[in-house]
Give the backbone structure.
Amino acid sequence: MSEPSLGGPETFVSRFAADEPRKGSDILVEGLEREGVSHVFGYPGGASVEIHEALARSSLIRNVLPRHEQGGIFAADGYARASGRPGVCLTSAGPGATNIISGIANANLDSIPIVAITGQVPRNLMGKDAFQEVPLTEITRPITKFSYLVLDVGEIPFIVKEAFVIATSGRPGPVLIDIPRDIQKEMAIPNWNIKPIMLNRNASRLPEKVLLEEIVRLISESKRPVVYAGGGCMNCSEELRRFVELTGIPVATTLMGLGIFPCTDDLSLRMLGIHGTIQANYAVDRSDLLLAFGVRFDDRVTGKIEAFAKNAKIVHIDIDPAEIGKNKKPHLSICTDVKLALEGINRILEKNGAKQQPTAEKEIPVSNIVVSSAWRKEIDEQKEKYPQSYRTFGEAIPPQYAIQLLDELTNGDAIICTGVGQHQMWAAQYYMHKNPRHRLSSSGLGAMGYGLPAAMGAALAKPGAVVIDVDGDGSFLMNIQELATIRVENLPVKIMVFNNQCLGMVYQYGYEYGDGNSMHSYMGNPSEKDKVFPDFLMFAKACNIPAARVRKKGELREAIEKMLKTPGPYLLDMMVPQEAQLLQLIPDGGTFKDATTGAAQ
């Protein structure tokens, strides 16, 4: 065998001779090599040991050993979000495989390309309730784009190739490959001259020019247009920015869309929805044209769907036909990649004439398109009238202030990973993202424990980037074992734990709707409430990770600066008051008319 050479599919040179038999596990690993995979997040077990041995023989792929299978798939997810390339994870059969179910569901809801590989019991034991036998393809079918059970070693090259095509084309998502152990051992000569038969079905449709011209006409007739942009715009940030430059239309984004348009731009309305800004929700409520790009009209955005953008004509562009009209019926829709649509719209706008700079006396023309300066002024008045605000608690650290300070000290350029809860929304509200793929969060599923392993994957995908896990004590504890992985891999992940000794969101619900003690949200030791429990500094010490605890607002800047300057990983345990609450702007099932505008945080 020779050393493999990784180029494109046509230039790949195998370490095996063309007619040399090799194990199914080696065929699988070479298939991954041919797809350009450089990292696999794999936790070994009896049903996958052959694949791990094959990975050990590869000089192109490095296996990163998580300390829990869920940590592995969340790391693969973070890797995919940060890089735009598919993340790959590997587990054994049985409980190892079922431990990644939440990660698969998470990737499915947020449209993240992941290829999850699982070992399975030998074929002769399948269907006999063998040790660690679980029908994983049946379990995962509703939450994957496709699930494969490999029953023939000769199918491995085809399955691997097709899995990556399916995971990355059309609306991205997770794909499962379940491979029995006897097939991993079986010797075969692979045929790499294969083409996935599902390629055309997953190809993006080119948008019809007549529809793009109709969108331009609608924009030209609109007096109060707004862009509503989501995760489907992740690969077309430049095109969206150019569109806004040409039209002057303000942009509201979803949680998944943060960073695709700079939060620092004058035309950014920032995040829309129940935890969003007044100006974003006001603009959509008042709009007469809503340009919905790469979104799904999620309930956390719309509130009462019947009242959402009730006065607007809606243009919906999305790559997934199932999303068109599913929650909100559009006036005009195009099923295509938003990138292709924006490229076409921008060409039409550019042909019509270059945008002139606005002045106080002059509206904003783009050829025949006029976006009223009065509309801009109306929205700006909302920003001024209802600025984001929060309560303070003497010397205690307001969590919102901590995010503002982090934003200042990183210049808004860090990759921010979060768990799920109050801290997740505080980070969304107060960190001013400027770039796509810099906000990693479990948005659709809301999976606690996501932040730390996702940061691990992001650090591997983007070496040299500042990667920060903004976490709550509840979420952090769920996958705290990944501190060991981060230490062993020497990943420069910075961890800011917003520690209020409780499940903050649950506590807040109990505080608002009950007596505050009925929802089992206290995470400390009831017999020693004066002590911090558990002590995260001891966890960090056990993993040889530098750590510190900060309690006072006046000491926070220095503490964050030290965290950022310290080489390698670092944990900052930041004590925040339980009384600090997350403002829910629009109540569940409510409308913008029901919005809370005070500093009730």
User: Anything to note?
Assistant: The radius of gyration is 25 Å. The longest helix spans residues 69-83. Confidence is low (pLDDT under 50) at residues 1-8, 354-367. The longest strand covers residues 114-120.
